[in-house]
Design brief:
By secondary structure, chain A is an all-alpha fold. Helices cover 71% and strands 0% of the residues of chain A. In chain A, helix 4 packs antiparallel against helix 8, helix 4 runs antiparallel to helix 10 and helix 8 packs across helix 11. The C terminus of chain A is likely disordered.
Chain lengths: 276, 276, 276
């Protein structure tokens, strides 16, 4: 593929229209996530509590926008004013939960459908991170940390609203905190936000803007497909373990242990750094 | 009653001044609700933790406005700037919890007092739903769902803040989620919001505006009094069961069961749709 | 000390620049508080979950501003735009948790260091309460209660975010509600807010403004040092017990008990008013 054509594709990708197909893919995966989170109980729950079921699905679909708005002092309900997205989300929710003989759910779980939807969702995610960073940059042109936070939240909002989403359904799981064990999507959104911020605010990245965007899209889609097809769940893990060892005490703790000073006397320096 | 006179009454009702009498009724029922929620422990709790007691009562009184403001990006504390309401609320709280020999509480619990206060509160509720819908319509003229959500929250805000209200008092009951088993007030506020939105945004309702409003007031007061005097708690239930059977899988589930495909194998399709 | 010189000192204090030294002291105590809240587990936790550890420390550092912003409809993330404070906070967090052989933590725990930092933090607290009251007064010139709430929250924000802060670290302690058993800092911030509001809005306090401010600084520092050095934890307690006895039912309850009417039959009127 010659560079011209590649840049051309990149420019196409950056201008892709999201509504309605990407919204359908996003809503579909959100509804599936809610249904899977309900477990074996899903069928019965959706019949007994349609309102809670609908609300928690909407919260997953609009999570990124709502959380970001909440933190930026903008109306939390504003994402709902997009009637098109709302109708798509409601239709998809209905299809996943209430079609006769559960046909909707079975089709949605069918592997090829899931792969296409997942790939589209990753393209959507890249756009959301990009828009989030841009929006925050307009409000706080010098606050990199705010841009990065908003970008990450827009990219994986549902991860951060999981507690509230479950609470709407009457379940409370305080230990399922995204910050404790960030998922791959959170880390990828964080990385993408940082790259977008660097691209926007510094001259360190000399590639054309469209290429940076396209690179992130490819990275997200590639790892999503690896995750579904090959079961590779977190390519960041080795880097993290290295980073933790150098910056967050790993080496010093080991040294201290060898020298017998043993701050970490209880021997848990061994199982440290495995999870985060 | 001839139609002219009826319309005249309706026009009177729509212009009723709420402060201070309706605020007193509203605050009284809020303080009683807090006291009853505390149970047998109320007396001791109010002596040990006056601050938590006062705060949770204020939260119940101002719940609708605070939640709606929070979701619309407006200052959550703004409802407190109404000094008159705040003083009325505080005075009522004091009377319900701290009068010598518990006279205040006993008077408030006296049936005729409770009936009058309840009727007034329903009139207040209709006004709040109406104002909520109007306010949201100004901000998002095309987002019906936001108008309906804000109207419902304004009408029964305390239902949705129950978790926070109890949390202020150190109790955490994650399963007491309003969305899981909406109360009659939530459903009535939802219905009233929908009617107000239809009245405002479409031509489907040809009755004069004041009559629509008056109709909703009568509906709310009538069912409140039925609930207190006759013990009828939820006139929506039959309609809901019908709706669930048609739209949310009831019929299909039964059909599937008869055909032996049994998605709802565990037999709980029987007790389904009872609660919501 | 002659009054002139005293007023002069007061005028100096009111103009003290907070950044960076007072921010360092504030961040240091915040990081220590997080580390102590983690208990024996702190070392291992900080290695396993650096992100949650950093986030909860930042939440403690910026708690006042974030909560106040959230309640006033301003962007919750806005305090983070102050890059200087953010870098200071991050550096202090790193020093407290990750320095080799835990030198940073040991130095911070060294009594003279802690005393100086605590005294500086109280000066900072006075300024934050003052700024909070002023900010709220600009938004709602007639709502005293909002000024008092914002002043109190700015003064002891971390007390009110403790639940969220622990939740970020995956721990949920719903009974640790500040409102139930307000700490000395909350009560002192409340008192300071009330005095600032009276000073600003009435003519009841005739002392020059700088003196009022200086008096509050001295009061806060004095009791903080008493608390560290002499173990006096709550000078408000006797006043509170008196107030509760007069206004919140204590006397009447006793009277009722003597008269044998016994609303507080279970005999807990004795242990009443000890905690709040």
């Amino acid at each position: 593929m010659d560079p011209e054509a590649f840049l051309d594709v990149a420019n196409q990708v950056i201008k892709l229209k999201m509504f309605p197909f990407f919204d359908i893919a996003h809503s579909l995966l959100a509804a599936l996530a809610v249904r899977e989170d309900l477990g074996a109980n899903a069928q019965a729950f959706s019949r007994k509590h349609p309102l809670a079921c609908w609300l928690s699905t909407m919260l997953v679909i609009f999570a990124g926008g709502m959380v970001a708005n909440g933190l930026l002092g903008e109306p939390i309900l504003a994402p709902l004013k997009n009637t098109g997205q709302l109708l798509v989300g409601t239709a998809v929710w209905y299809v996943v939960f209430y079609t006769p003989f559960d046909i909707g759910y079975k089709v949605a779980k069918f592997l090829p459908v899931k792969i296409v939807a997942s790939a589209m969702k990753e393209i959507y995610r890249a756009k959301k991170v990009y828009d989030g960073v841009g929006h925050a940059a307009k409000l706080y042109p010098n606050a990199w940390i705010i841009m990065i936070i908003i970008g990450t939240l827009k990219g994986n909002g549902a991860g951060f609203t999981k507690l509230i989403e479950r609470l709407i359904r009457g379940a409370w799981t305080p230990t399922a905190m995204e910050f404790m064990q960030p998922s791959f999507y959170t880390k990828a959104s964080l990385l993408a936000s940082i790259i977008f911020v660097l691209d926007k605010k510094t001259d360190w990245i000399s590639a054309p803007h469209a290429l940076v965007y396209f690179g992130i899209v490819i990275f997200l889609v590639y790892f999503k497909l690896s995750s579904i097809l090959l079961g590779i769940h977190d390519p960041f893990l080795p880097l993290e373990n290295l980073g933790c060892a150098i910056f967050f005490g790993g080496i010093w703790d080991s040294l201290a242990k060898i020298l017998g000073r043993g701050q970490a006397k209880d021997g848990d320096s061994k199982d440290v750094k495995k999870n985060n």
